[in-house]
Design goal:
Helix content is 54%, strand content 0%. By secondary structure, the protein is an all-alpha fold. It has a single domain, classed as Non-ribosomal Peptide Synthetase Peptidyl Carrier Protein, Chain A (Orthogonal Bundle), CATH 1.10.1200.10. It comes from Candidatus Propionivibrio aalborgensis.
């Protein structure tokens, strides 16, 4: 994932957290969904964002929350799907 795309992803996640009145920062390795900071609605909007921004099709593989639980995991997912 390019640096600009990663920054846009972090901005998207920051806004999602702010929508939940969560204004704390987060590390790239920090859990966002399993930890409860973001909910299932946030996950749906994230999936739609990733489909639009990176051309991913989540119907092509078995979804697991751990695939998108942190910035690092999202980056690994995007990179693996774009190189496949």
């Amino acid at each position: 994932m390019e640096l600009d795309a990663k920054q846009k992803l972090r901005e998207f996640l920051t806004k999602a957290l702010e929508n939940h009145r969560d204004h704390k920062g987060f590390a790239d390795s920090e859990s966002l969904f399993v930890s409860g900071r973001l909910d299932s609605f946030s996950m749906m909007t994230l999936v739609m964002y990733l489909e639009e921004a990176f051309g991913l099709d989540f119907s092509d593989f078995e979804f697991d929350v751990n695939l998108v639980d942190s910035v690092n995991e999202i980056e690994a997912l995007v990179d693996s799907k774009l190189t496949a």
